[in-house]
Design goal:
Keywords: Bacterial flagellum biogenesis, Cell projection, Cilium, Flagellum, Repressor, RNA-binding. 39% of the residues lie in helices and 16% in strands. The chain contains 5 helices and 6 strands; from the N terminus they run E-E-E-E-E-H-H-H-H-H-E. It has helices spanning 52-65, 70-87, 92-103, 107-115, 129-134; strands at 3-7, 12-15, 18-21, 27-31, 37-39, 139-142. The strands form 2 sheets. A 3-stranded antiparallel sheet has the order 4-1-6, with no helix packed on it. A 3-stranded antiparallel sheet has the order 3-2-5, with no helix packed on it.
Length: 153
């Protein structure tokens, strides 16, 4: 069953490390195999990493999108995770869950959990707040592919 993403005009997407952009019209993409992807609103730029929670998110993002550098980034992840645990000992359950997800290779889910740790004013995403108010959310659905009965010959 493929994964369907509907992207807005002008939206960007990272797929297996490649940055894709959408033109002037909405686009539907279907992924029929496993891919690592992040939508533009989920991408955190390094210059926006002003808290330990965002640094943790960013390093997981790097591990997810660039698996060829995962070995080095996993070491950095361990260091940042310990700093985050020291800074926010009350959130140890979430940090444990993030660590378990990263160790099992479920990076996308770890990113979602990590976003819960962001301060309230940035909890809605990693991008610009003004953009979020004017754009509608991206639709992500799984679609079953059905063979057409009346195919033209």
């Amino acid at each position: 069953m493929p994964l369907k993403l509907v992207l807005r005009p002008g939206e960007k997407l990272i797929v297996n490390g490649a940055v894709l952009g959408v033109g002037d019209h909405p686009v539907s993409l279907f992924f029929y195999n496993k891919v690592n992807f992040l939508r533009g609103r989920e991408i955190l730029k390094e210059e926006n990493c002003d808290t330990i929670e965002k640094k943790l998110y960013f390093i997981i993002q790097l591990i997810y999108i660039f698996p060829e550098d995962a070995e080095l980034n996993l070491i950095k992840f361990g260091i940042i995770l310990e700093e985050a645990r020291l800074a926010h000992s009350a959130e140890s359950g979430l940090f444990d869950e993030v660590q378990t997800l990263v160790q099992s290779g479920n990076y996308y889910r770890a990113l979602k959990i990590c976003r819960k740790l962001f301060p309230a004013e940035t909890a809605s995403g990693a991008g610009d707040a003004a953009d979020k108010q004017t754009k509608t959310p991206v639709v992500v659905t799984k679609v079953r592919r059905r063979p057409s009965i009346n195919q033209p010959e």
